[in-house]
């Protein structure tokens, strides 16, 4: 029997409802609501869609958003000046710098310049350090989305073999950290996994992925995970978003893998929508942190 489809869109909508109530309470108690500054540099159409979706989500949960759109030829210094202005602006609680940035701009230089208390993507080294030490200030959006899907679907990773395919700073490394952690702000079922990280240089990768009770695919290669790389009954979380000639697909060969997995996230409507709602949660967290 084909595995259960884990509907990320429905889970994200539910979290949005919960969050809208929390934002309304925050506004009632503090007057001003949380505010997110969105910074988009260049003309990448996908990035423009993601930022638009984030601003629409802000509207739905009651967070104010302010847009800063800069041309593709923007230099590093100009962008750093904008970040400094947003850091100093008391009306801004969170700063989102949409990635990727144009090639003339070093992403690390920009992300390091965002004030750690306004770092709602959890990309700043201080926040990554806190996460690794098991005392997170923010949870990174996509990895947090993965945990929420597992938790709200009643899937436990505790004591299970978890394999993460991919070692990016945005997904692979932080999701592995969270799954292996001793405890989790999301819940006791989302931590204490036995985690293996695989990547493009891993030898006999399929032999390792076949050991996974929970397999997280985040390697950025369309349909990379085939059915013969998956243990029957495994839970498969697909974090890939790939635009191909035949349309949008994930890093998992969905139709074939669904036949042997016990549960699987689709693309679209899987992890992606959770990324957006977790950014909303981090913006509220940032506003709370800035009250003191
Ligand atoms: N500053 C950041 N930049 C980027 C991040 C990030 O978390 N912070 N992640 C990705 C892009 N991203 C959010 O920014 C993102 C990607 C996909 C989705 C999503 O909902 N996808 C839909 C499909 C929509 C489509 O592309 O047609 C889905 O999976 O259902 C949301 C956010 C890189 N940059």
Defining key terms:
single chain, 292 residues, alpha/beta, Rossmann fold, 2 domains, six-stranded parallel β-sheet, three-stranded parallel β-sheet, 10 helices, globular, binds the ligand Nc1nc2c(c(=O)[nH]1)N[C@@H](CN(C=O)c1ccc(C(=O)N[C@@H](CCC(=O)O)C(=O)O)cc1)CN2, one-carbon metabolism, purine biosynthesis, hydrolase, EC 1.5.1.5, methylenetetrahydrofolate dehydrogenase (NADP+) activity
SSE succession:
EHEHEHEHHHEHEHEEEEHEH
Count of beta strands: 11
Estimated radius of gyration: 19 Å
For the termini, the CA-CA separation is 53 Å
User: Any idea of the CATH class of the largest domain?
Assistant: Alpha Beta
Bound molecules: ligand LMY7XDAE
Percentage of residues in helical conformation: 40-55%
What's the story with the biggest beta sheet? 6 strands, parallel
Q: Output the CATH topology of the largest domain.
A: Rossmann fold
User: Shape, please?
Assistant: globular
Count of domains:
2
What is the average per-residue confidence, as pLDDT, rounded to a whole number?
97
Q: In terms of per-residue confidence, which ranges show pLDDT below 50 for 5 or more consecutive residues?
A: none
Instruction: Say which CATH homologous superfamily of the largest domain is assigned.
Output: NAD(P)-binding Rossmann-like Domain
Q: Strand pairing plus helix content: what structural class?
A: alpha/beta
User: What percentage of amino acids are in beta strands?
Assistant: 15-25%
Q: List the strand order in the largest sheet.
A: 1-11-8-7-5-6
In CATH terms, what is the architecture of the largest domain?
3-Layer(aba) Sandwich
Please report the number of helical segments: 10
């Amino acid at each position: 029997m084909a595995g259960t489809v884990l509907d990320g869109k429905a889970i994200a909508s539910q979290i949005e409802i919960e969050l809208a109530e929390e934002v309304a309470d925050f506004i009632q108690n503090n007057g001003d609501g949380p505010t997110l500054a969105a910074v988009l540099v260049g003309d990448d159409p996908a990035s423009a869609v993601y930022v638009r979706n984030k601003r629409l989500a802000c509207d739905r949960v009651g967070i104010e958003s302010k847009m800063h759109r800069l041309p593709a030829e923007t230099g590093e210094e100009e962008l750093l000046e904008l970040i400094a202005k947003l850091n100093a602006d008391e009306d801004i609680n969170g700063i989102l710098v949409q990635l990727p940035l144009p090639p003339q701009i070093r992403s690390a230089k920009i992300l390091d310049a965002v004030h750690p208390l306004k770092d709602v993507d959890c990309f700043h080294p201080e926040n990554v350090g806190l996460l690794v030490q098991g005392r997170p200030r923010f949870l990174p959006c996509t990895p947090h989305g993965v945990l929420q899907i597992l938790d709200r679907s009643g899937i436990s990773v505790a004591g299970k073999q978890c394999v993460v395919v991919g070692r990016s700073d945005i997904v692979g490394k932080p999701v592995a950290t969270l799954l292996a952690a001793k405890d989790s702000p999301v819940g006791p079922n989302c931590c204490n996994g036995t985690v293996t990280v695989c990547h493009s240089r891993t030898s006999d990768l399929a032999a390792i992925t076949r050991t996974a009770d929970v397999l997280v695919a985040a390697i950025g290669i369309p349909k990379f995970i085939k059915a013969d790389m998956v243990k029957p009954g495994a839970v498969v979380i697909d974090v890939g978003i790939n635009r191909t000639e035949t349309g949008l697909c994930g890093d998992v060969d969905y139709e074939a893998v669904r036949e042997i997995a016990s549960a699987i996230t689709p693309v679209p409507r899987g992890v992606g929508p959770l990324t957006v709602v977790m950014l909303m949660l981090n913006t509220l967290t940032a506003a709370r942190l800035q009250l003191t």
